């Protein structure tokens, strides 16, 4: 293999790697929509206030670790995410709505909302 062929091969590998990296990043970014605090349902706004003040929480499972097993949120070490129930009117169970907090829930500023039990997430923005 001469120098030109070697250069073309290395450059081709670089381009392929770059393409796949951009594709994966675009896929991860596009899966997360955004929602403003004002656009959250009233119960979501109330839950977010409770999270930021450290409780008290109405559900026993609030504040527990969220595993992110489906990897729909940015990848982090286990224990990074915590889940909180957003009440759903006229539903006796916890319902499907949740707020997920990343890092230190009271101060991180990293919050996600799901209304369909972890199928889709929106990043909560101020």
Written overview of the protein:
- By secondary structure, the chain is an alpha+beta fold.
- The protein has a single domain, classed as Nuclear Transport Factor 2, Chain: A, CATH 3.10.450.30.
- The chain is built from two helices and five strands.
- It has helices spanning 3-31, 42-53; strands at 32-36, 81-85, 98-102, 111-114, 121-125.
- The protein has a five-stranded mixed sheet.
- A hairpin with an 8-residue loop joins β3 and β4 (111-114).
- The longest helix is centred in the first third of the chain and has 29 residues, at 3-31.
- The radius of gyration is 20 Å and the shape is elongated.
Rg to the nearest angstrom?
Answer: 20 Å
Q: How much β-strand is present in the residues?
A: 15-25%
Give the topology string: H per helix, E per strand: HEHEEEE
Summarize the main sheet. Answer: 5 strands, mixed
Please give the CATH class.
Alpha Beta
Distance between the termini: 57 Å
Helix content: 25-40%
- Structural class of the secondary elements? alpha+beta
Do you know the CATH architecture? Roll
Shape by Cα distribution? elongated
**Uncertain runs:** 22-29
What topology, given as strand order, has the largest sheet? 1-5-4-3-2
The helix tally amounts to: 2
By CATH, the topology is Nuclear Transport Factor 2, Chain: A
Please describe the topology of this protein.
Elements: H1 3-31, E1 32-36, H2 42-53, E2 81-85, E3 98-102, E4 111-114, E5 121-125
Parallel strand pairs: 1-5
Antiparallel strand pairs: 2-3, 3-4, 4-5
TL;DR of this structure?
With 126 residues, the protein is α+β, with helices and mostly antiparallel strands. The chain has helices at 3-31, 42-53; strands at residues 32-36, 81-85, 98-102, 111-114, 121-125. A hairpin with an 8-residue loop joins strand 3 (98-102) and strand 4.
């Amino acid at each position: 293999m001469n120098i030109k062929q070697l250069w073309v091969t290395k450059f081709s590998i670089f381009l392929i790697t770059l393409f796949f990296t951009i594709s994966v990043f675009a896929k991860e970014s596009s899966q997360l929509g955004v929602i403003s605090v004002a656009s959250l349902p009233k119960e979501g706004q109330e839950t977010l206030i409770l999270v930021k003040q450290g409780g008290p929480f109405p559900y026993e499972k609030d504040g527990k670790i969220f595993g992110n097993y489906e990897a729909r949120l940015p990848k982090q070490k286990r224990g990074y995410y915590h889940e909180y129930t957003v009440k759903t009117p006229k539903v006796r169970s916890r319902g499907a709505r949740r707020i997920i907090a990343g890092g230190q829930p009271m101060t991180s500023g990293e919050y996600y909302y799901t209304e369909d039990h972890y199928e889709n997430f929106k990043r909560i923005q101020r």
